[in-house]
C-alpha cells in the first residue's frame, strides 16, 4: 500500500457544524445510509471519530453503539482511533465517517478495524472526494487553510486498494452531494454526474477466505496402478 503522508498539520473536528456546509454533508450521508442500517446486525457497533459519533445511526439494528475518539461530544471511550483498546474480533461493525480524512495514520486505523472486527463484520467508510468541486478548493491558496479543504482526500481507487489488501469485500461504493452547498447536491446533477460527488461512501465486509477461490482438482481414476503382490516379485541378488 502506498504511504499516505502530508506535510500540513491535521486539525481534528468535533462536529459536522465545525465546517462550512457540514450540516448538508451529515444529512446527505444520513439519507444514503438509512437503507443500510437495518441490514447491519450483531451486538457492538464502533463509531470511530467525532464525526462518526455525530452521525445519526438510530436506524441501525445493532443495539450497543460505542463512540470512540479523542475529542468530541458524547464519547464513551477516549482513545486514539489507530490504537483501539478492544480485543481481537470483538466488534460486529465499524463506522469511519471521515475519520481517515482527519488523521495521520489512515492505514493503521484500517488495520486496527480489521483486527477488532469479527469474521464477516461490517465496515462503513465516508471521505471527501478529491475529484469534485470540493477537491478543486485545495488548489486555491485562500481556501487551502480552511475546512474541509485542509483535510485529507482519497480517491475511491486508493481506498479500494487498501481494503483489498486487507481482504474486504466491497458491497456498495458510490459518490454523492455534487454541490457542497445543497443538501442533496441537486437530483439531476447527482444522476448525471455521480463521479464528481463531494462525498465518497464505501460499505464492505471482512472476509477470512480468498475472494477468488481456486477450483479443486478432481483426482483422476485413469491409469491407476494395480496393487503389487509381494510373493510374485523378484529382487536382484
UniProtKB/TrEMBL annotation:
Keywords tagged on the record: Methyltransferase, Transferase, Ubiquinone
InterPro entries: Methyltransf_11 (IPR013216), SAM-dependent_MTases_sf (IPR029063)
One Gene Ontology term of the molecular function aspect: S-adenosylmethionine-dependent methyltransferase activity
Methyltransferase type domain: residues covered: 77-125
Pfam families: Methyltransf_11
Classification via Gene3D superfamilies: Vaccinia Virus protein VP39
One GO term of the biological process aspect: methylation
SUPFAM superfamilies associated with the record: S-adenosyl-L-methionine-dependent methyltransferases
Protein origin, superkingdom: Bacteria
Name of this chain's protein: Methylase involved in ubiquinone/menaquinone biosynthesis
Organism in which the protein naturally occurs: secondary endosymbiont of Ctenarytaina eucalypti
Lineage: Bacteria, Pseudomonadati, Pseudomonadota, Gammaproteobacteria, Enterobacterales
Amino acid at each position: 500500500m502506498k504511504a499516505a503522508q502530508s506535510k500540513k498539520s491535521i486539525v481534528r473536528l468535533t462536529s459536522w457544524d465545525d465546517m462550512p456546509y457540514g450540516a448538508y454533508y451529515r444529512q446527505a450521508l444520513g439519507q444514503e445510509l438509512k437503507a443500510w442500517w437495518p441490514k447491519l446486525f450483531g451486538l457492538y457497533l464502533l463509531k470511530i471519530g467525532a464525526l462518526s459519533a455525530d452521525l445519526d445511526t438510530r436506524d441501525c439494528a445493532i443495539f450497543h453503539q460505542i463512540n470512540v475518539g479523542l475529542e468530541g461530544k458524547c464519547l464513551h471511550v477516549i482513545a486514539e482511533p489507530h490504537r483501539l483498546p478492544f480485543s481481537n474480533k470483538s466488534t460486529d461493525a465499524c463506522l469511519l465517517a471521515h475519520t481517515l480524512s482527519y488523521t495521520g495514520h489512515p492505514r493503521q486505523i484500517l488495520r486496527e478495524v480489521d483486527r477488532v472486527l469479527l469474521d464477516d463484520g461490517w465496515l462503513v467508510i465516508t471521505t471527501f472526494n478529491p475529484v469534485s468541486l470540493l477537491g478543486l478548493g485545495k488548489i486555491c491558496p485562500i481556501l487551502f487553510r480552511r475546512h474541509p479543504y485542509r483535510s485529507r482526500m482519497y480517491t475511491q481507487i486508493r481506498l479500494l486498494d487498501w481494503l483489498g489488501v486487507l481482504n474486504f469485500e466491497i458491497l456498495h461504493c458510490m459518490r454523492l452531494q455534487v454541490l457542497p452547498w445543497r443538501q442533496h447536491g441537486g437530483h439531476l446533477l447527482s444522476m448525471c454526474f455521480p463521479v464528481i460527488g463531494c462525498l465518497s461512501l464505501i460499505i464492505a465486509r471482512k472476509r477470512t477466505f480468498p475472494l477468488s477461490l481456486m477450483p479443486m482438482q478432481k483426482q483422476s481414476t485413469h491409469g491407476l496402478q494395480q496393487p503389487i503382490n509381494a510373493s510374485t516379485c523378484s529382487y536382484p541378488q
